[in-house]
Specification:
84% of the residues lie in helices and 0% in strands. It is an all-alpha fold and 404 residues long. The two termini are 37 Å apart.
Length: 404
């Protein structure tokens, strides 16, 4: 009997993402509790950014030459070890900022190649099982949205019963479980498209440089639809990163209602889950162009409502509409990216894309923080709404996306 690949793929991806979601809530609290320094989290993010980008580029090159399933398993094991080390150190010698940096860098080395490895495995798993890629992207996006909803709640329960530091054991266990479930994916699905493996350090560096160049060529010069998808995805990440990472937290902090941030982000996640499920069910009922136009139009309305900062109820409604409308277009972008990148360059191209997103999102947060300092949070939000409307106009008129 032929073993299926998509079920263990979805399970392992969900377990890994759930672990990262919990860690994203717990780690800043543990760091603040141990160091007492509010700037420590920002400093840690900057310190980890460089190895993350390098890991994305080098990991992408590896994924075109080594077994992708094995790289995914190894990355999850590295992530599990780096997270489990923190409560272990806390219980023995005590945590300091240096330990957070050491474990954070180690985790970055595992997280980004692991994410790229799962990206490269997805189309192979779908092809192995003979499943429609467009419909499966809706299912995959739905699972991601569900995990984003469940993660913070699981983190809160874990901290309530176990304490913040001990909750990191749960994160490590989830990464370990993800590695174990990945082994259930048939070995043939993870086979490297390029033979020969890695030929020494010098050869690896040369191959990495060539793979990065080829990845950039594939992303930006091989197909206009692929190029537009990558560019639009990066632009969307810049605006949404600014809202989630800076504008909304500052707004609710200034309003002395920081707990409302969680409700707004949760409504966005619930909306994205429903939108993804609707798309997964009716993907072929409408043309891709109709889904595309409806999604961007709905997101523009949602951002305008959310970005008005006009009150809690309008912001909740705007966030829900934004999330709902983003579900189909997120699945479509995934479909274009996975479907238009050749298998033999998928690792280098997706590694380059993930590294690009790692750069633009923190940069967006930094620029939005500088704008808030200079002109205030309301004016910054208005500027971001205007930027989003410009992105929407570009998305709707760009030639590459007119006949998708």
């Amino acid at each position: 009997m032929k073993l299926r690949a998509t079920a263990p793929f979805v399970a392992s991806s969900s377990l890994s993402l759930l672990g990262n979601s919990i860690a994203g809530v717990v780690l800043p609290l543990v760091l603040l509790a141990k160091t007492g320094d509010a700037l420590a989290a920002g400093t840690l993010a900057i310190v980890c950014a460089v190895p993350q980008v390098l890991a994305g580029v080098f990991g992408g090159a590896l994924l075109d030459r080594l077994d992708r399933r094995a790289v995914s398993v190894g990355a999850d094991l590295i992530s599990a070890a780096s997270i489990a080390a923190l409560p272990l150190i806390d219980a023995t010698v005590g945590l300091s900022f240096g330990w957070f940096v050491l474990c954070g860098v180690a985790g970055a080395v595992g997280d980004i190649p692991g994410m790229t490895a799962r990206d490269t495995l997805l189309p192979a798993a779908v092809s192995h099982d003979g499943i429609d890629l467009q419909r499966f992207m809706g299912v995959a996006q739905s699972m991601r949205s569900l995990v984003v909803i469940v993660g913070p709640a699981a983190a809160s329960l874990g901290m309530g019963f176990l304490g913040a530091a001990n909750t990191l054991w749960l994160t490590a266990a989830l990464s370990l479980s993800a590695a174990a479930v990945t082994l259930l994916i048939p070995r043939a699905v993870g086979a490297a498209p390029k033979a020969g493996g890695v030929q020494g350090l010098g050869g690896f560096v040369r191959d990495t440089a060539a793979s990065t160049k080829e990845g950039l060529r594939v992303l930006f010069r091989s197909d206009p639809v692929l190029r537009a998808s990558v560019v639009l995805g990066a632009l969307v990440a810049i605006v949404m990163g600014s809202y989630q990472g800076m504008v909304l937290p500052v707004h609710f902090t200034e309003a002395a209602q920081p707990q409302q941030l969680g409700y707004v982000l949760s409504s966005m996640s619930v909306g994205a889950l429903i939108g993804s499920l609707v798309y997964a069910r009716f993907a072929h009922a409408l043309s891709r162009r109709v889904w595309y136009v409806a999604s961007f139009s709905g997101m523009a309305a949602g951002v305008a409502c959310l970005g008005s900062l006009a009150g809690f109820v309008p912001m909740i409604a705007g966030a829900a509409l934004l999330g709902f409308a983003s579900g189909p277009v997120s699945a479509l972008f995934g479909y274009f990216v996975y479907g238009l990148i050749p298998d033999e360059t998928r690792g280098s191209a997706l590694g380059t894309q993930n590294s690009l997103l790692l750069v633009v999102t923190p940069l967006a947060v930094f620029l939005s923080s500088a704008a808030i300092e200079a002109i205030g949070v309301a004016a910054t939000s208005c500027a971001l709404v205007a930027a989003w409307l410009a992105i929407t106009a570009y998305a709707l008129v760009t030639k590459a996306m007119r006949a998708i």
